[in-house]
Amino acid sequence: MHRLILLVLLTFAGRALAQAPVMHPSRAFESIGAAKAAGAVVWLHGSYDRDDPPPPEPPFVARFAHDGYDIWRFDRPGPDPLAGSGAALTEDLKALKAQGYRRIIVAGHSRGAFVSLAALALSGVVDAVGAISPAAHGTNPGRAPQAIADYKADMAAATPMRLALVQLLDDPFDLDPDGRAEIARATASVDHMQLMLIDRPPEPVGHDGGLGGAFDGRYGACLTRFLEGRVGPDACAATPASRPQSSPP
Description:
Layout: H1 2-19, E1 22-25, E2 39-44, H2 61-66, E3 69-75, H3 82-98, E4 104-109, H4 111-116, E5 128-132, H5 144-156, E6 162-167, H6 177-191, E7 194-199, H7 213-228, E8 245-246
Helix pairs in contact: 5-6
């Protein structure tokens, strides 16, 4: 009986370990180490079928690697708890900073973007956050109040840094884009946070629109340069066929 109980406990412990978030260097890019790199970029993917491998980084992430950044990943089996993953992310980011990276940028898509908002509380550790179509509450409009409440809690904890928030048209997971944009602007004005708001441009569209080549072609350069601190929050406003809105620096 004791052996059976021990076996059950070990089984559950193994499952918990397998489901824990894992931060690791991306296998898609060569790492040069904290001493030589311009900084570290941590990518958080969206939810995926657990029978498949975690989704790859979108094309615009390669721009960071080209600029001398090491690319890291914060992989989570889904659906992961927002609070738990956010807490684990903040601890791993502190450990990453302790390695000596001079700059840390956190970026994510969908659920990964929502988790990445926890990094807004880490001024002095994190320099910028890029949230591409953040989503974690499904498509039921009745979940909008909870979605806004969770989003507002992350924004309330925000510290001065750069934030790029991307919202695209025809995204069924974006339950209140007007509310999110308003909260982001209000937070930026009070906390002196630099905000780049790419808010429902004509294209690309859809929840996964920020993952493709069309998004990278229109916004990849100005978005990554903003997150790196090389241009201001209005940099994407001059991109053809776009009407992003942004706050003053």
